[in-house]
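Input/output pair, single chain:
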Amino acid sequence: MKKYFISVVLSLMSLSLFSGNVEQLIDSAQNSFMQTQYAAALEMYDSVCNMGYSSSDLYYNIGNCYYRLNDIPHSVYYYEKALMLDPSNDDAEFNLNIANRQLKQIVEPLPMPFYTRLGIKILNIMSSDAWTILNIVFLVLTLIGIALYLFLGRIALRKLGFSIAVISLMFFIFTAICAHKSSVVISENNYAIVFEQSMVKSSPNADAVNSFEIYEGIKVQVVDSANGMYNIKLADGKEGWMDMSDVKLLSR
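Output:
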């Protein structure tokens, strides 16, 4: 029991030190950024990432550093990573749109059915973690409503409990679906950012026919891989193969 207690205390101390180091580095990075020392700020943010810490705000700040250093592809990459963790990060979305307008190539996405757009908008209201927390809240409310219905004698209170249970159950199911969908989007993310201007091939072969040219900073969907190449798909529907070293997966 004593060893277990000591182990718990040491773990809590380590966690506290880690949290303190992360906060200190982030504060120092923000101060450097405010003083226009963007390279120094980026170096500190990278140190935070190397410590295993990640968050939407962290990636947003890294994207800002790269943008100020005029490295648009890297800024796009980190804004996209910020939105992958938290689709409701309006600042990241705003800055991503600005960065995308400075790319050499503009890719117009194919039109989507209204119900697909609606579903994406609903999921993007909040992050996957926020959907999960909300789901737990509605579960608790459902249980409270059931308890009121089962254990209170007054008819009015039992009716109230029944209403709370039914309404909360519906929202519990809805938020459970949203939390699941959001987590699937993150876990199955198969998008990447192009970092080298190159020719997209018609097949996974360096000697294959050139299909079209692609520029740095473009977001692509990775469909398949073979022979050290990715089968990529653009938002406008164009497909082809390009070298793995020319793109960087957002899931990394």
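The two ends are 40 Å apart (CA to CA). Residues 56 and 82 are 4 Å apart (CA to CA).
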